[in-house]
Queue: 2 jobs
Job 1
Amino acid sequence: MAFGISKDDLRHWKSSIDEGNIAFITHFWLDDRFPDMKTVTKVGCKDLDMLAAWGVGYGLKREWIHIRKDGYSHFDLLGERQLHILKKEGKLDQLSLLTKMK
């Protein structure tokens, strides 16, 4: 279950994907499969080859991409990997959001 993001944040993420960018969005997230995880960062791109190539640099596998019919396919980043990638990508605004969420 996702929550803790505004409609504007979601629109901005989708718009960035529609423009062909690699886009990040972080929000609260609860899933019984990952009881210790409280947040997720979704990293999406409409160009799946571009997204997969980006992911290789962080040890992410193409088969981990959540393929969506609506065009907003993405990786889900959790835990330490999430923090590491956000830091490396210079997404300090996303890190700030994570701090406020915890």
Job 2
Amino acid sequence: MPRYVGAIDQGTTGTRFMLFDHDGVVVGNAYRKHEQLYPSPGWVEHDPAEIWEKTKAVIERALSRAGVQPEELAAIGVTNQRETTLLWEQDSGRPIQNAIVWQDRRTTERIEQLRENGWEEKIRKKTGLEPDAYFSATKAEWLLENADPIEVEPPRHEDVRERAEKGEILFGTIDTWLIWNLTEEHVTDVTNASRTMLYDIRAGEWDEELLAEFSLPREILPEVRPSSDEETYGTTDPDGFLGAEVPVAGALGDQQAALFGQTCFTPGEAKNTYGTGSFFLMNTGEEAVDSEHGLLTTVAFQRSGEPIQYALEGSIFITGAAIEWLEDVDLIESPAQSEELARSVESTDGVYLVPAFTGLGAPHWDQRARGTIVGMTRGTRKEHLVRATIESIAYQTRDVAEAMAADADVEPEQLRVDGGAVKNNFLCGIQADIVDMEIVRPEVDETTALGAAYAAGLAVGYWEDLEELRENWRIDRTFEPGGDRREIERRYDRWQEAVDRAKGWAVDPDE
């Protein structure tokens, strides 16, 4: 009798496998980091083969630690870093090159060309997205145009595009890559499809006009399925590494998975996930709300036989990664120390740090913005820089919250938060103050994995309905807004000035 649901949470810096029981309680957990590759300035890559090996390792490790047999799994769900793109050979399963990560900026000029050629409004209308190197379309186009020829039998070099047009090369985001390795089925779910800049989110299908613009053969594309799929995507091979036949029945991009795990099933319910970046999503129900303030319209989730549910999203590229940067440059010894140092000073002493290390996402969308520190004096100490970094996370969230309030008829009454950084009580407290909203932290902060588990478990009947999931959601702590509103507003105005100084920096002086 299956007793648990498993969730693969494949993120930007590592892979986690978690086991949940019927109450949504974690009973098993394992995590492994993978290497970050930076072959050129602005380029970020991952080795897909390494990711798959680490995925197998954490599944085996979590099961072993929990004393759970694979046969006890009712289903497996998958959640993943979105937009990260790869191509692989169908026959061998071998990636043709490293995956291009969502943070990668190598196709910035191609995006600028699209804007110059009048594609901006068309892309926004079809996909809900802003044209940006963040998304998968230009990454896939770049791979087809620049990947090295493949050695085939009889011995000769064969062009990647030629093989793609024959259906011998497969395209996918990381969810597709993992599902293919688990089940040998080439599928994705609607949430991940909606992040490719190739998918018409209202029609619910790959868009022929966009495929033509990016010269992407339809043969390489995965089948798009519901996020919680009663037919399942397939099963694991009983003769494979698990030694059991387990349904793979749910998939969600990581931010939609967190929305699902936070049980934001009703329009107006919102969450913010603090990971490498931060991603603020608000459920808008069956209405795909067009944004006029720099947000994305995206697919929230879909259950089998039901309409697509949509969300507004503010994608902030760098938040938790800014704390990692503090550690990289030896301003802190560990992420936990950031809270202690930030509390040790009453303010940033006028210092603002804009962590635009890979450009600015919502609501600014400036690919050429770069990380900037302003307001330093001879008296500036590392404590001020650390506090300014933490405050930048809260300020960026407010930027998105204000855009969301302007776009939507319904405003969230509270913001549910999750991700590694929400363990920082100082961040949660100033977040409530700066955004002027109740911040609610759940007991289970790994809601990304929980959302994937919920999607898979619902598909196979492990959980009956959404209300049953709501009953599992429990609050750890609530942070109420406070502070001097006039002073908060003054500092927020100065933050916006700092952002203006970060914009447009990465310009070739010879151009």
